[in-house]
Amino acid sequence: MSNKKHNVMIEYVGITIGCALMAISLNLFLKPNTIAPGGVTGLAILIEELIGIPIDITNLAINIPLFIVGLLVLGKVFGVKTAYAILMLSAFIRMFLILFGEGALITQDILLAAIYGGVLLGVGLGAVFRFGGTTGGTDLAGAILNKYFPSISTAKLMMLLDLIVVATAGVIQRNIETSLYSVIALYIAVKLADFIVEDLSYAKAFYIISKDSEQIGKRIMEEVGRGVTALEGRGLYTGNKREVLLCVVNRAQVAKLKKVVYEMDEKAFIMVTTIHEVLGEGFKEIKK
Fold first, then answer.
1. What is the pTM of this model?
2. Nearest 5°: CA angle at 185, between 180 and 190?
3. How many C-beta atoms surround the C-beta of residue 278 within 10 A?
4. Which residues 6+ apart lie within 8 Å of 114 measured at CB?
5. Do the beta carbons of residue 283 and residue 222 sit within 8 Å?
6. How many CB atoms lie under 10 A from the CB of residue 117?
7. Measured between alpha carbons, how far is 36 from 284 in angstroms, rounded to an integer?
8. pLDDT tens digits for range 16-64
9. Checking CA distances to 98, which of 88, 193, 264, 280 falls within 20 to 30 Å?
10. Which candidate, 261, 152, 136, 147, places its Cα nearest to that of 211?
């Protein structure tokens, strides 16, 4: 199997797992307690509560026009993954309804339902986003808007749209607590989705200033297995020229790199910054 086919398979497995987690959240935590954490799924919960249309059917009906827009704006590859995610989410919702029954729930404590429902929803959404899809609704709308406003993450744009849905939920239910608990679930879901999309892939950049920069650089390349770049630096106070080493490592290599530096020079000056994405050799492949 080629590397490309293997990556595509992993992406679709990730999207599938994400949709399954979202369906568990909706079926066993949010829907039984009438918590509507924004989005089409949140609206679907309220619509089922009001007029009895199942949430999987509402999910498909609302997402069809959004999917067409997404296909035009985001391209065919994104569209295929989104279509797959929309269908899988509705399929899992229906499957869990059949398996666990209409009235199944894990807890009747609304706060616990909001927290754990939000956690599962966020992890599921994050997985779908991370592997290049959306499940339709406001996350698809958020992905479309992210195309035009790349400085704002898809999850945050989704949250803005979802707050409108959450506020509407309180009005429809004539119960402010519906909105308040829904906001808790929404906040947790967005924070976790953001974390999974961005922070799980973070790396650390080390800037090292030492009198033994040459030896330190060689040991880092040999023992840590990372490339090192020497930058020219000059102290403004002393006027002395000195090399500044730049090295980017993953989380597992942080402690090892610090150990190497301090073994060579206990007085070395080290600056460490967090990088949310690194592209290139040894890290994430640059996609054309």
1. 0.68
2. 125
3. 17
4. 29, 30, 33, 35, 181, 182, 184, 185, 188
5. no
6. 32
7. 36
8. 999 999 999 988 998 888 787 667 777 777 777 777 788 888 878 877 7
9. 193
10. 261
